[in-house]
Amino acid sequence: MDQRISKTMITIFVICFIFFFITIFGGLFYMLDGVEKAENYKLSGDEISTFTKVTGYGKIRKMHSQSTPDMVQKTYVYAKVPDYSQNITTYQQYLKDYEGFMEMSTGALKMSGSSAILVKESKDQGKLLTVQVIYAPGGVEITLQKISGELTEN
Prior knowledge:
Radius of gyration: 22 Å
Order of helices and strands: HEEEEEEEEE
Transmembrane segments: 12-32
Strand content: 35-45%
Structural class: alpha+beta
Number of strands: 9
Keywords: Membrane, Transmembrane, Transmembrane helix
Number of domains: 2
Shape: elongated
Low-confidence stretches: 30-154
């Protein structure tokens, strides 16, 4: 009788552990994935980072936010960005509380802390642009600067 109870308890414990494991890791993968129907890109040559292109129009989506020990809020956002053609240098746009509208085209903006990366995508290749983010009262000022680089689809 005691042996049967111990086997039952062990079986229940194993089943609960499996469900706990699936729940925890499933939640982690869901949080890390974040965006449905996203396409990943990386910079050819030296891989700087992996970029995510999201489709949609309009509002900037706040994907992830965390507080650092120095109480600086690092916020990761993805948004559609203006379509810059060949001779762009800088562009400024104010965003209020990380929510706002921009003129929409292709690409994705990934912002973290005081820096961000903009990916402009075309049919044959992607162009990498850097974005400097300056915190200002009432909003965020971002300046986009074009640099050389190609993005290839993973």
